[in-house]
Structure formats: C-alpha cells, structure tokens
Amino acid sequence: MSYFENDGCQLHYEDYGHGMPVVLVHGLGSSTRDWEYQVPVLAAHYRVIVIDVRGHGRSDKPRERYDIATYAEDVAALIEHLSLIDVHLVGISMGGMIGFQLGVDHPELLRSLTIVNSGPEVKPHSPKDYLEIAKRWTLSRVLSLETIAKALGRLLFPLPEQADLRRKIEERWPQNDKRAYLSALDAIIGWGVRDRLQRIQCPTLVITADHDYTPVAQKEAYVKELPDARLVVIKNSRHATPLDQPEHFNATLLDFIDEVERNKDQTPC
Predict the structure, then answer these.
(1) pLDDT value at position 269?
(2) How far apart are alpha carbons 252 and 28 in whole angstroms?
(3) Regarding beta strands 9-16 and 47-51, do their DSSP bridges make them parallel or antiparallel, or are they unpaired?
(4) Residue 187, burial from CB neighbour count under 10 angstroms (0-12, 13-18, 19+)
(5) H/E stretch holding 205
(6) Under a CB-based contact definition with an 8 Å cutoff, are residues 112 and 257 in contact?
(7) Which GO MF term does the entry hold, naming one (predicted)?
(8) CATH topology of domain 2-122+193-262
(9) How far apart are CA 58 and CA 1, in angstroms?
(10) Which of 156, 175, 177, 254 has a CA 20 to 30 Å removed from the CA of 168?
C-alpha cells in the first residue's frame, strides 16, 4: 500500500506494471477494489495506478464539504507525486465526472480519457429530474448503508448467475463512512462542466452500458460536443460495466489505449 498527501489529506493508491501510465478512478461508494477485473489485464501491458479518492477506501475521510474539483486536484496531485507527464485516465460514474473535471482544468495531464457510465453534468432540467435527485438525496440519508447495499446489489446484478457480484456489493458498501458517502453524493448533485468540454482535446472514449441509469441518447448528445470522442455501447450491462462485463470492457479499453499509443506522434492534449 502506498500513500501521498494533498492539501492535508492522506490518499491511498496502488501501482502495478510498467509502461505508459493508466490511472483508474472509481465511483461513489466504491474503492480501488472494484477494479479487480481490470488491474491484472491492464498491468500486463501498461503501468496501472488506482486511487481511493478522499472519503473512500483507505484514504482519509476529512470532515469537510467535498466537491468534484477537489477530487480532480487530488488526482492531479497523484500524477505530480509520481512525476508523470501525462496519463490515460479511466473513470467510472463519479470517477468519470472527476475525469471530465480534470480534463477541463488540466487538459495537459491527459494522454487520453475514458468515461464509463457517466456524464459531464448532474443538473436537473425537468420536474422529473428534480424529483429523482430529491428522492435519491432523501433515501441516502434515511436508509442505512446495509439497506442501500442490498438494493444496489439487486439493481446492478439482477441475474441468478450474478450472485457473487451481489455479495461483493452487500459486503463492501456498508464499509463506507456514511458521512463521507453523503458528502460525496452532495458533491455530485448540481455539478457540471459541459460548457467547457471543448478544452478536452485528447482522444476520448465514452463507454456506456445499454441498461445504465441514463439512456444511451444522453451520451450520444455530449459525445458530439467533445473535440475527439467516440461512443461504445456494451450490451447486457448495467451501471457497473467493469464488473458485469469485464472481458468486453477490458478488450474495448485496451484497443482504445493501444490505438492512442500507436498514434502518439499526434499533438498532445
């Protein structure tokens, strides 16, 4: 286990393999452990760095208001700590938001960007949106982490053959610090950088599950606003694509990174 400090917060990360660095950033309520099906495959080709963002996993959980910009600065500090020039960054859900934030604040740090089941904003645009956000905000405060874990397990992994994945969620989710978890949820609501997507000039891959929380059409819309982006839809998958479709996900990600490396004489981000 390795640690570094940024702005008084000790952050945990793990470092595997050799070569061009690939940084993996998890989502809300998750940790480095949820990249378990990616790290061995990617580390056979690249240097793989996984981080627990503040408030999660083995990182500190300061009693403060969290925001996506601070998470992005933590990732930027990790890149500086390891003396890296630029990285292939992969973020899922909240990790994708962190990737977008890093991309607009520090585009020079990204060799490529991969966004998984995420988007560049979480802002309500209709009464239905307001209702859904209010419902999630309220239930997250009323329900225990154990109850949320069981509901998430059924939602993310509904098939009989996914029982082991359901158990992972049910075991890991309650290990979160409830206060830090709620602060991270608050950081997501109302966040957005969609008006600055033109700053992200590096090759960008957007991966979406066909049964993600938000429809494929929403991803298609923002992909058109990115200077150099493509969309890949993974079928028979839900929000936790790296866990429920690891082979398809890994092959898609490796193909993309390999292509970026083959074309590395292009203008850097």
Answers:
(1) 46
(2) 23
(3) antiparallel
(4) buried
(5) strand 204-209
(6) yes
(7) hydrolase activity
(8) Rossmann fold (3.40.50)
(9) 9
(10) 254
